[in-house]
Structure formats: C-alpha cells, structure tokens
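Quick one:
INPUT:
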C-alpha cells in the first residue's frame, strides 16, 4: 500500500486531493504537510505536519518518520502572487522543488509535481500545441515551471528518480480559494 507525503496540502489542489487519496489508500497512508495549519478537514482527518519546503532537513525528516514511498509536491507560489514577488517565487518554487527532488533521490521515492500552461509563452503555437514546443514564458511563474520541468527530467536521467508531471490549466477548487493563480495566461504583468 502506498504511503504518500503531500506538500502544500492546504492549497486548492491538496485540500481536495488529500481527501480522495485518504479514501483510496487509507487515512494513515497520506501525510499532509503545509507551512501553515488551519481548520481545514485535511488537518483533522489524518496525519498532518507543519513543513516549510525550503527546509530540506525537515522535509527529509518527515519523509523518514512516516516511511513514505511517494512525494506529491504541491507547495508553490502561483502566478499572480509570484509576479508581485518574483524573488520569493524563485526561492520557494525552485528551492522547494530541488529539496523535494533531493528527498526523493535519497530515499528512492516516486515523485509527482504539477507543471502548468504557464510554462508556455506568447510565442508558443496556440493550436495543436505539441508536448515539445517553444517555451519562452515571460512571467516568473512560467520561468519556474519550465525550469522545474527540466529539473525533474534531470533527476530522472541523472539519478533514475521516477519523476512525473502534468501541465495543468487554471484549476479552481470548490472548497479552497485560489492562492494566487487561476488562469495563468490572464495574469497582468
Ligand atoms: N490551481 C491551478 O490553477 C494550477 C494550475 C497549474 C499548476 N498548478 C500547480 O499545482 C500546485 C498546487 O497549486 P494550488 O492551486 O493548490 O496552489 P495554492 O496556492 O492553492 O496552494 C499552495 C500551498 O502551498 C503552501 N505553501 C506556500 N509556501 C510554502 C512553503 N514554504 N512550504 C510549504 N508549503 C507552502 C500554501 O500555504 C498553500 O497551501 C502548484 O505547483 C501549482 O503551480 C496549479
């Protein structure tokens, strides 16, 4: 049975995904983490740890404590918020990602993190866009997502880490308000 560590668990995706994962794999098998803690059912309904993903040692400690075999890395600063504070976005989005990938490498874990249509840019073909295409985004979030896709590829080719991702469009939760991005292409910069 899988044991999954989820970062950024109180966000739009995590707050709904974790409930479903706990139904599927069992409550004790899904370890929800976030930098903050609130009254969300995710905190009450199973294991929850306060975890800042920029703290590499703490992330490794939580992964070891619960003996997880998979990381779903959701903690990030999203498009509009990232554009207001690009340096913070770089540090969180790239620093958190590389920490999570390192934990996956060290402990031989499966790894998933979402990319975004924000990884495209104004020069990306708009119709029948292929998987490998022009990716020259002009937002910090987009730059982070392109770099993140490449970093995940690197960890696969260099270290054999099972890294996977998807480019999500704007997703809106019905329980949690957006943390800064809904439709990445609508961001005013
Ligand atoms: N929602 C969308 O439309 C969408 C689209 C494409 C990709 N994605 C990607 O999916 C992932 C999750 O998105 P979301 O919509 O759930 O985001 P969100 O903004 O709703 O949630 C992000 C969560 O990360 C947490 N967080 C922030 N800083 C942290 C830190 N230092 N350590 C730990 N946690 C921290 C926040 O508290 C928050 O709960 C992100 O990688 C995002 O880029 C989302």
């Amino acid at each position: 049975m899988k044991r999954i560590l989820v970062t950024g668990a109180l966000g739009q995706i995590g707050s709904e995904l974790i409930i479903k994962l706990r139904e599927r794999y069992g409550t004790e098998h899904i370890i929800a983490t976030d930098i903050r803690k609130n009254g969300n059912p995710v905190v009450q309904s199973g294991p929850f740890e306060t975890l800042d993903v920029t703290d590499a040692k703490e992330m490794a400690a939580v992964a070891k404590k619960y003996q997880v075999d998979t990381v779903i890395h959701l903690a990030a600063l999203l498009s509009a918020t990232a554009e207001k504070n690009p340096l913070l976005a770089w540090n969180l989005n790239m620093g958190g990602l590389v920490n999570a990938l390192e934990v996956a490498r060290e402990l031989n874990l499966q790894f998933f993190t979402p990319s975004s249509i924000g990884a495209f840019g104004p020069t990306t073909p708009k119709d029948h866009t292929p998987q490998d295409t022009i990716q020259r985004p002009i937002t910090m979030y987009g730059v982070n997502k392109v770099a993140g896709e490449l970093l995940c590829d690197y960890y696969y080719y260099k270290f054999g880490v099972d890294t996977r991702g998807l480019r999500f469009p704007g997703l809106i939760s019905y329980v949690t308000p957006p943390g800064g991005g809904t439709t990445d292409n609508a961001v005013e910069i």
